What does this fold into?
Amino acid sequence: MQITLNGNTLNVFYTYDELSQVQKNQIRYYGFIHVPNQNRFQQSDDGIISMALKIIAYCDRQAIHYSLSDNLIELRENQLKMENAFMEVKLEAANYKNGIFNKKNFDSFCCFVNMNIKRKLKEHQIKAAYHHWVLKNAANFSVPGSGKTTTLITVYEKLKQEKTVNTLFVVGPLSSFTAWKNEYFQTLGKNAKICILSNYRKQERLGIYYEDQNDIDLFLTTFQTFSNDYKNIKKFFLHNNIFLVIDEAHYIKQIDGKWSSKIIDASVNAKAKYVLTGTPCPKGYTDLFNLFDFLWGKNNTISEHEKAQIYHYEKNKEYKKAQVIIKNKFGPLFYRVRKTELGLTKPVFHDPIILKMNPIERNIYDRIFRRISELSYFDGEKNFMTLLNLKRGRIIRLRQMMSYTKLLRTAIDNYEENLFDNMNDISNLILNYDKYEKPSKLIKLLDLINTIQHKDKKIVIWTNFLGTIALIEKKLKKNEINCSHITGSTPTIEKQKNILTREQIINEFLSENSSIDVLIANPGACAESISLHKTCYHAIYYDLSYNCAQYLQSLDRIHRVGGSEVHKANYYFLQYENTIDSDILDNLFEKRNKMYDIIENNSDIFGYDISAFIDIEEDKSAYDRIFKNNEF
It folds into this structure.
């Protein structure tokens, strides 16, 4: 059999008896088309190089005798060199994590850090930075607040001075941009010339990609903008020495997802690649595949067969078998710092503040809860998707009651049930609620803020509802408490002179002598990628959701390296008695304790049963738990 590559066309020539029918079917499965009467398969595609290596590997596994065209011989030799180089650097990284390393090289790296990095790095940051420098493509799975951004900026500066890279290019959520700008200055002691690609129209971005950008130190862009521009970005990478970082990399976990596939494709031209996330496999082990395909090329770290094995083991809850494969394949390629290694003070979780609802709140809550309880008896008559939306919507209605009664007037996506049929008195109370009373939580919030501010000025208040943010902000300002808010709609660039951007609000809040003492925030918009710990040591949870990931991320906003070594983080929870508030908090604490036990008692990310705390349908599970026995 002969395999040739002519331009963009890969050909497989064979004689009548060289291939079995099974082997021919496999070649067809790879996307080859059979050319009639020529004993030839062919395929033309942009990714033909990887397909050539794939068909060669298949022939080797099947012991099929073949010859290659000269260009494929050269291609395979280069591939073997890359594989050998990868195995060498992987072994070096594995040895380093096991305490075996070249002391002279490590001391030289430490000397570079002392001479060139303004910020004094923690021991765990230096260790992680050296690991990343050795690999050139690496993952940092350290817990939030451990200084992952500083670590990577250090590696970037090292590789830049070695002439390996010349530009730092970061893809992440909008909320991460401020951190990168600030950390660049604080780590290197100089301001970066920054280009935020997401701030430009597409036509303007095209000009940026095709012009000389040697004076730009830091490019920042969102996943959406990268996806829209990936073909031009791929060419841009080809003509620049790019240090590429995917921040909050769990956003590209979806296999064959729109963002992930385009980022992986464009990244082949980057000189060094890194991923940052404290939650590398939030839903399961297969979340890891995209991260390492991005770092080392598709199927270079782990084969399709091994991926299928892991998927099978995970599906059948044979977690230990999956862990053996993952640990062997991925273990040396990432670095993880646990919370206990950070030297932070132990956070203070104050006892929940249990409050009685005010009379109208109580009346409305009890009536709605009874209505849902009555409706739950007919759940078995609904189809799966209808029932799923009903359960989710009903729980959200109850959560709204835990926050601000008037929220019951707002619409919920995919939920059209009217809980107030034949309850005109309740509908009127909801509509005119503000005329009759204030939420009990709002009254207690003011008292709690005044108590805290006798000691510390800065407080962050977490609530999941936009209507509640507006309510709290109005009340605080009426009581002459300086405050501001951040939600998903808070602008990232200045559009009007009288409207502050997200970055301006955060910077103002962090300043000890600023005009903002209280920040009201939505966990969905602010729970990740921002740091409040340098001047803020108190977080009040006005209401909660069942989303454990957002809750854990919000905790880390005020408990991080660079301040929490001295100052204790304080957490307060406002709770209504005899409501679902207690179920939400108990559920979050249970998940938090399980996850912390996993993170702190295992040196890697694979030694646990992921089903123990992952719940992709939190609201549905809560509904089933609460209304199974009608326990409230």
Notes: The chain has four domains: 2-78, 102-337, 348-353+437-628, 357-432.
